[in-house]
Each structure stands twice: as structure tokens, then as C-alpha cells.
Amino acid sequence: MKKYRIRVGLDVDDTLYECNSYAVSIINRRHPDEPPIKIEDIRYWGGTSERDRERIRLYSDPEFVRGQPITEGAQEFVRKLSKIADVFFITAVPACCMSARAERLIQDFPEISAENIIMGTRKDVISLDIMLDDGAHNISSSRAAYPVLFRKPWNTGLSGLLSVNSYDDFLHFCEMVQNSFSEKFPELSDGGVLCLVGPSGSFKTEIAGGLTKLDGFEKPLTSTTRPRRAGEGEDSYRFISEEQFIREMREGRYIETTVYSGYHFGTSEKEIAPIVERGAVAVIPIDICGAITLKNLYRRRAMLVFTNRERSEAIKSIIGRDIGLDDKTRRIMSLDFEYRNSEVCDAEVNVGDDVEAVVEKIVSLVNPD
Fold first, then answer.
1. What span, in angstroms and rounded, lies between the C-alpha atoms of 342 and 338?
2. CA 221 vs CA 267, 277, 284, 289: distances in Å
């Protein structure tokens, strides 16, 4: 029987072509006497300052569209993706820019038929298997079975969305979906990575703590920009500033990074690799973005376990936490996205109030004998 080819939609701006960064470089050249804009300064697509408005105006200029640089690795990424999927370009540009956009796509990605270029702002009416987009608003309203957010500085406001950091992670995710019915279950008996993925309030941290009290389970030290909570020790996280985190991320310190509830989290290979090499299991409470990155890196030696807790109980847990109101609101708003992530995990455990029972269940998944 012929294997089904998944249908994958790709956003174009800031997914295949540099858009915001290109606009920022133009604006900085136009205003050499003013403090330069950094890409990290863009927190969402629009903006209220004059330079924000100037940036947005560029997107309606056909010459801007014609001159957009191709993102490094984009052509190779599309070539690889086209071998396992039917690829569609889903792009929203003003009418005056449509010809310029189509000409660039046909020229730069010849393996994709011109018939697979879909232009329009109503991305919410397009039905696909998988959609990759840097716009959180497009992902949250997508009809794709698996809408995937491409992490960028301006889309960190929402947590819990199915998301990736790189082309390589997205390719691996597509392979995961393609092979979902034939993939072998992860094997961690000789060491590996256990990713605890689940909604906020599902006791991931407590479960990780219970596991790491047992022989053969260890928790690598994760760096975070989140403030230390009451009762957390020095070995809970490596607490650093956002400035230091971004600098270390650019230096390549982390093998996976993610943003959760507005805070950065990252794990370095030097923290995970020694655990795995010793034949132990590295236990990491993590969101789906970082989990997919680690699954891509460790393949069958990485297990994604979804910690499923009843929504009302998860909300009670969030409300009862000693965190700010904005943080609580973001976590509750993210629950719908987080519960969907169970579909891409290797296993699921139901979490009540008995953390020890959940720990025992996970141990039986890791060590089935």
C-alpha cells in the first residue's frame, strides 16, 4: 500500500524569508543617528511607535518583497520536506505584492509547483495536516491537525503551543507524524532522556522530584530567567538574567531553549550528556517545543510523557501558586494548547493528587520488565 503523503503548509515571511530582521536593518540604515532597533525589541507583529509603523509600511512595498533575503537553510529545508510531504506555501501579502512574492517563491523553490502557492489572509480556512507559522494568531486559529509555531522573539507571549526552534526540529516532527503508527516505543534501559510534558498545574516538577529520588534518574540543571520561588534551592534551576540567557543562547550554549509564561528556559548538552552516558535517565519537566528538540537529538532514547490532569484541578493549582496575576492568566489561557500536545507524546499518565502513584507508573514505562 502506498504510504500517505502528509500535507504541510509553510508560512513565508520570517519562516522562509527574512522579514522583520530585514525591515529592522533597513530602518537602522535610514536612521543612523538614532539608537538601533534590535530584533529582540519586536515583541509582536504590529506596534505603536513611529518606527514600528515604518516597519509595517515596508511590508506593502513590492521592492521590499523582491529583496527579502532567504533565511539560511530554507532552500535545503524545503527540498528535504518535499521528499516526505506535499508542500504548500501559505502567504499573506497585499495585492500589490502578490506578483513579487510568487516570482520569488517560484525562482527560489523550484521543486514546489506554482499551484501550491496560496495567497490570502484567511489562513484559518485552510485545512492541512501540519502548518508552520511564526504568527501565534495564525497558529491558534489554524484548522491544521498539527499547527506548529516557529519560535521567534515576537511570539513568546503564548505558552504551551506546539512549537519548534529550527527547521531540523520541524522536519523531525513531520517524520514523527508520518511514522506515528509504526514508530517503536522509546528504549531508555541504557540511558536516555525523559521529557515530562503537560499543562501547567499537572505536577511536572513534583513528579520529576519523585523520580530523581530513585536510582537511575537524574535531573539536569536547567537555566532560566524565571525568578526563584519561595522554597527553591540553588540546585532547582540556574537562575540568570534575560540578557545573560540571550547572550549564552547566541553563543550556542543550549541544545534546547523554550519560552514558558514569558520566561526563557534552556538546557545545555553538558548537563544532559553525562547523565545519558552513565546509563541513567535525565528527567526534564519541559514544554513541547523543547521536548521535540530533545526527541530530534536523542530519537528512540528520548521518551515524551504527557502528564494529564483534570482541567479544573490544574486551574486550582495555578490559582494557588505564589506567582503574579499576569503569569497565572497566561498559564490558564494556554491550557487549551497544552492539552492538545498529548497527541504527539509517546505515553500519557493521568495525574491526581497521588504523585507517588504517577512516579510508579512512569517507572514502569521506562523499565517495562
1. 8
2. 7, 16, 9, 18
pLDDT in tens, 2-38: 456 899 999 999 999 999 999 999 999 999 998 888 8
Q: Report how far apart, in Å, the C-alpha atoms of 166 and of each of 15, 92, 179 are.
A: 10, 22, 20
Task: For residue 7, list its beta bridge partners.
Answer: 86
Residue 87: CA count within 13 A, CB half-sphere: 24
For residue 124 the three cell numbers come to 484559518
Helix (H) or strand (E) holding 311: helix 311-319
Q: Are 295 and 176 in contact (CB under 8 A)?
A: yes
User: DSSP of 200-250, one letter per residue?
Assistant: TTS-HHHHHHHHTTSTTEE-PPPEE-SPPPTT--TTT-EE--HHHHHHHHH
Secondary structure of residue 101 in the 3-state scheme: helix
C-alpha cell of 126?
485552510
φ/ψ of residue 304, rounded to 5: -100, 115
Cβ contact 343:231 at 8 Å: no
What cell was used for 299? 530519537
Mean pLDDT of 158-176: 86
Provide the grid cell at 207.
Answer: 513528579
The model carries a pTM of 0.76
Residues near 131 by beta carbon (within 8 Å), at least 6 away in sequence? 8, 9, 10, 11, 90, 123, 138, 139, 142, 144, 146, 147, 148
